[in-house]
Amino acid sequence: MSTPGAPMVWCYGSGREVEVSVTVDGDAISIHVSDTDRDVELANAEELFEWLKVHIAGSLQDPKGGVFDKLKSGKFFRWE
């Protein structure tokens, strides 16, 4: 959330380019597709899940862990 009170936004893309943004404001779920400048309105989280599964391959996978995750899980250093 960028500002207090602003709707929540998730962005999907590669590198620094945003391909799709998902905005949730109250009960409204909106998807904006950058390439086509098209908006898609969805009724619920299940529809969002299905839309992402079909249109944005890999968007529903767990994020890759960073250095902090490796440290936290003990995979960065081995303490003996």
Write a structural description:
The protein is of the alpha+beta class. It has a single domain, classed as 2-Layer Sandwich (Double Stranded RNA Binding Domain), CATH 3.30.160. Helix content is 22%, strand content 34%. It has helices spanning 45-55, 67-73, and strands spanning 8-14, 17-25, 28-33, 38-42. The chain has a 4-stranded antiparallel β-sheet. Strand 2 and strand 3 (28-33) form a beta hairpin. It is globular and about 40 Å long. It starts with 7 loop residues before the first strand and ends in a 7-residue tail after the last helix. The model has no long low-confidence stretch (mean pLDDT 77).
List the main descriptive attributes of the protein structure presented here.
alpha+beta; 2 helices; Double Stranded RNA Binding Domain; single chain; four-stranded antiparallel β-sheet; 22% helix; 80 residues; globular
Give a quick rundown of the structure.
The chain has 80 residues and is α+β, with helices and mostly antiparallel strands.
Order of helices and strands: EEEEHH
Side-by-side strand order of the widest sheet? 1-2-3-4
Tell me, rounded to a whole number, the average pLDDT. Answer: 77
Q: Which CATH first-tier class would you pick?
A: Alpha Beta
What is the CA–CA distance across the termini? 42 Å
Report the CATH topology name.
Answer: Double Stranded RNA Binding Domain
Oligomer: single chain
How many separate domains make up the residues?
A: 1
Unreliable residue runs: none
Content of β-strand:
25-35%
